[in-house]
Fold this sequence. Notes:
The chain has a single domain, classed as Up-down Bundle (Growth Hormone, Chain: A), CATH 1.20.1250. The radius of gyration is 21 Å and the shape is globular. The chain is an all-alpha fold. Helix 4 runs antiparallel to helix 17 and helix 7 crosses helix 16.
Amino acid sequence: MGPLNRFLTKTFHLRPHDLANLSFLYFATFVMRAAAFAGVAVMQHAMGSLDSFWKGVLFAVYPLAEITTVGYFGALCDRLGRKRILVLAHFVTAVAVVLFIPSISDPTPVGIRPYLVALFFAMFGIGAAAKVASTLAMVNDHANVENRAQLMAFFDLVTFGGLVAGFGSGFLALKASVPEALVLGAAGIGVAISTVLVLALVRETDFTPEPQRGTLELLRTVLRNRDIRRLLPVYVPVVALYGYVLTFTDHLIGSGGTAPLSQLLIVVGSLGVPLGLSLAVSGRWSDRTRRRRPFMGLGLACFGGLAILLAMATGPEGTAQLASQWPLIAVLAAGAGTFPPAALAYLGDIVERAVSGTTFGIYSIIFGTGLIIGPILGGALTDAMGSLAFAVIALTFIGISATGVLFIREPAAGRATAPSDASAPPENG
Length: 429
């Protein structure tokens, strides 16, 4: 093992073989996310002729498929193993991206074939369900109390980086009049490559299988945990806001397609770079202090600040206004980056190892529920209220989530001296 490997292994409190497996897992995740979100950018663009409400409804097929299947995939991770489900996730996503091309090749009165879009969005949702449950379970298998937030931060980084790289590249390519089919073709190749990477390089993690407990019993075991139930009002509103922004990106910062590329790059850069750096730094601080709630609270407050800025800048000159405020955006984005690693580490703190796949499946159900609420509610309010809708949605959702943080406990703080852990004792009842 070389000097760099020894340094990283010591810094992140990993066993020697953990570093290699996590590196391959993160890299494959980045490739898949980038390619998949390039496809999502095309889907969003193809639905541009629909009104806001029906655009939100059609986009909601993706998370609906995710939340109806993720419990099953999470339970399979606990019963059969993580890698099988991970490979399935990448394969299904690759097929969905490639098959989406025919749905936009023959124009209909609304510019797309809605039933095909719905089908492929459903496949995306199934792929996401299998991906989140298996990947987070594998990351948590490698984690302990000294590195959990940092490992979850790297998961957030590769996921966020894939979203920015894929969705951003797709968004800008379409603005530059690159054919939709060409963007989708490149995305399909990318997800196929990620599938090969998983098959060849990622190994199964150490875990104790639960072959005797069925899917429903595993789900009941997880849902009896009060800590997990208390997370619902924290997670769902934040993800709903994320879903709204993802669905209506062009409405928020696109300026009707007239904004100069330089202004778009300033806005995206002032959001993305500080947010990415904050994910890594705040995850380390969270592990050192054994605290999750303060970081979640700070992140929510900064999300609220960003929401106000975006809501005030939805107009013909909105992108220019945001570009002129890039230092403030950068500060708020850095603060917002403290939420995701702390929130995921909190879930890892309270998870019972025997049902970790199922537990992270429940997380995906929470995530998918938010992605349904955000686009549909956001679409309806956007039609009724215009640009004011984003401010109303954002501040309401963040207020609910911040209130929820007040009622969750701090399980990691009482185990500050433990070198490693299997899991926090679940609080059942």
